[in-house]
């Protein structure tokens, strides 16, 4: 639908509607030309409807002007205000244009803002009053004719405004639906971005653990080339298995990143003992203690696994050879406490501190579960990493 005065192309429906409105206005004008008998008490014979004879020049001019008004309805979508105002003025001079005027008023209320329609309706009221004075109806009192004309125009304007508001409501609902769909898409993209950030943390944790094992055993082979063949074979086996597992982890990460949204395979509490055994095979002296009852929730179990994994990785990096204790204890309703504690490392093997990115990631993980994370050096040397995680009863 075109309402800005630009080029307008009618479809089949528009052609049918426009032709119907044009013919309806003509039928109304033709009906007004006929001479109907005035209402009154019945008589013996019904008074016939008569067709007027040869029109005078004024009547001919009225009919020509009315025909032009009916033809102008073809452009009522492009120029609704101009056509409605012209037909309001024409209705003052001839009642033949009343049908075309009502159609124009309806189209005006449909295609233009209410304030424009009401302004033209004000002109229509004035035209009804002026027409009642200039062309009084011999069959109706002037006041009745005036009120009837205002009521008819008001009903047409109200009908058009109701449809106009309904269309605006539908359009508003459509825009809100599009806006809601866009917001949902943005939320999905944000959630996907968060998932990918979580994947990046998983890459740091998983590969950091695997590569630290590779580093420990490769360093042992470098510094002890004269080690017994059995130890060399064991270190080579751990290096091979860790490298293979690291490649598997990378394949899983790449596979998930290629998908729209996904999650990496998550560890559980059942994998915690295997994690400690791998660290023990790498040469670390780890004492593991489990003391909890019931089934640990999945999120708490994954977080506990990552805490122990990060703690053992840091021990290998910064305190190789130090005695390490890992303890997990708790119960439903009391919470789950995870602790990694290592003693002082040999002076000759002590290494520089880390960048702390792993601890930052752990802090975020624990905070998401509304838990607490503590870490810091011990008075007698060594390091302690401890976390409390909620465990609903």
Which keywords apply here?
single chain; 393 residues; alpha+beta; Heat Shock Protein 90; 2 domains; five-stranded mixed beta sheet
Question: What this model shows, in words?
Answer:
- The chain has a five-stranded mixed β-sheet, covered by helices on one side.
- 62% of the residues lie in helices and 10% in strands.
- It starts with 11 loop residues before the first helix and ends with a strand.
- It has helices at residues 12-33, 57-72, 80-93, 98-111, 114-134, 142-223, 229-258, 272-281, 298-318, 357-368, and strands spanning 285-292, 323-331, 335-342, 372-377, 383-389.
- The chain is α+β, with helices and mostly antiparallel strands and 393 residues long.
- The longest helix is centred in the middle third of the chain and has 82 residues, at 142-223.
- The protein contains ten helices and five strands.
- The radius of gyration is 45 Å and the shape is rod-shaped.
- The model is unreliable at 348-354 (pLDDT under 50).
- The chain crosses the membrane at residues 15-34, 83-109, 116-136, 142-161.
């Amino acid at each position: 639908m075109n309402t800005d005065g630009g080029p307008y192309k009618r479809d089949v429906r528009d052609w049918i509607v426009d032709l119907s409105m044009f013919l309806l206005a003509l039928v109304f004008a033709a009906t007004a030309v006929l001479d109907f008998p005035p209402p009154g008490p019945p008589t013996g014979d019904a008074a016939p409807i008569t067709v007027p004879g040869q029109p005078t020049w004024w009547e001919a001019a009225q009919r020509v002007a009315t025909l032009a008004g009916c033809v102008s309805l073809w452009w009522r979508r492009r120029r609704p205000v101009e056509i409605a105002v012209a037909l309001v003025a024409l209705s003052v001079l001839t009642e033949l244009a009343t049908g075309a005027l009502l159609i124009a008023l309806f189209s005006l209320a449909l295609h233009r803002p209410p304030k424009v329609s009401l302004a033209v309706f004000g002109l229509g009221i004035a035209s009804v009053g002026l027409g009642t004075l200039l062309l009084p109806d011999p069959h109706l009192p002037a006041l009745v004719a005036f009120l009837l004309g205002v009521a008819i125009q008001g009903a047409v304007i109200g009908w058009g405004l109701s449809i106009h508001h309904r269309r605006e409501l539908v359009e508003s609902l459509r825009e809100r639906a599009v806006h809601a769909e866009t917001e949902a898409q943005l939320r999905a993209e944000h959630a996907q971005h968060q998932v990918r950030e979580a994947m990046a943390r998983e890459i740091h944790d998983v590969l950091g653990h695997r590569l630290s094992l590779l580093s420990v055993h490769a360093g042992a082979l470098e510094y002890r080339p004269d080690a017994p063949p059995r130890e060399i074979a064991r270190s080579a086996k751990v290096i091979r298995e860790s490298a293979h597992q690291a490649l598997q982890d990378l394949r899983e990460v790449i596979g998930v990143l290629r998908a729209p949204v996904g999650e990496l395979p998550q560890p559980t509490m059942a994998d915690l003992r295997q994690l400690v055994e791998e660290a023990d095979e790498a040469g670390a002296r780890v004492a593991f203690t489990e003391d909890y009852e019931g089934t640990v929730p999945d999120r708490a179990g994954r977080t506990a696994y990552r805490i122990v994994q990060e703690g053992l990785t840091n021990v290998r990096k910064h305190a190789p050879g130090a005695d390490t204790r890992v303890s997990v204890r708790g119960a439903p309703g009391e919470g789950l406490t995870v602790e990694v504690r290592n003693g002082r490392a040999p002076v000759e093997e002590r290494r520089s501190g880390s960048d702390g990115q792993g601890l930052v990631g752990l802090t975020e993980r624990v905070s998401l579960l509304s838990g607490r994370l503590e870490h810091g050096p011990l008075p007698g040397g060594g390091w302690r990493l401890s976390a409390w995680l909620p465990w609903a009863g």
